[in-house]
Amino acid sequence: MLSMLADYSGLFGGLNVFRYITFRTGGATITALLFVFLFGPRIIATLRVRQGKGQPIRSDGPQSHLAKRGTPTMGGLMILSGIVVATLLWANPFNPHVWVVMAVTLGFGAIGFYDDYLKVTKQSHNGFSGRARLALEFTIAVAACFAMSLVGSTRLATGLTFPFFKEVVVDLGLFFFAFGGFVIVAAGNSVNLTDGLDGLAIVPVMVASATFGLIAYLSGNAVFANYLQIHFTPGTGELAVICGAVLGAGLGFLWFNAPPAQIFMGDTGSLALGGMLGTIAVATKHEIVLAIVGGLFVVEALSVIIQVASFKLTGKRVFRMAPIHHHFEQLGWSEPQVVVRFWIIAVVLALAGLATLKLR
Length: 360
Prior knowledge:
The protein is mostly helical. The protein has one domain. 64% of the residues lie in helices and 3% in strands. Strands 1-2 form a two-stranded antiparallel sheet. A hairpin with a 2-residue loop joins strand 1 and strand 2. The longest helix has 31 residues, at 21-51. It is globular. 48% of the residues are buried.
């Protein structure tokens, strides 16, 4: 919305700053941060009253988690509210990529909200039906991929690019929609599985968002894309504004989610933020780079897959408990140790992902 003020820069030259994505990204970060800071306590108080017993805690999990009973969930509402407000204010409303990413984010957020609602009302970990949930997620994701193929670069519309190779593009044809949908759904559920300790998921999400904000800005700028010899994806630079909003909202949420957490993110937030990251990766044609930058999320998801497969096939467990962050807790690591060390891993992986932009 505020980007339209640049149209009046002829009357007042200072308004020209609203034309720059970097300026509006900073504005979105600050706006989302202030929104969550200002309205966060009220949202937490409301959720605590309405939820009563809060998010159910696994009785078979680490015993230290039992002290968290009564903590409200659905904190993703705080994050999403900040993102929506900041994006509406600072992003270009005429950019279709912005609306596609926001549609996936809010769609996945709605699915996560319903799942959280069922868990809280039933006081059980059995929420939304797994198959129905995945079906809805894939429907939203495939629709988003189709929309992006229409508004994106014709040459790259259904193409898959590879890090370290500047000219290699594989046209996936119709398979692109299945592949892109898988990336988005996998990203959403991987972040969802990572959200198991206070502050564990939100910081890696912020790190990945900041990384993809830079990637989106560079990929959407013809000059920088040509200099770095990465594929130019027109219009995707505007997605940096959304990434900035995620960074601000995430920082605000972390204030309340830091141990001991006053509120949990819940599926409302983790599913939405993961879906958003996956959609931005597909839009910027950096799907494989997402697996590097979000490597922590990949490992968390793989630990669950390996654990389930091993137990069904052999009756034995590979990890003491899955997802893998609980495995390290069972080994004797304290919760803060697990969280901070996983944050460090997330930063290292983000740097590795950024290195792919130059090593071509």
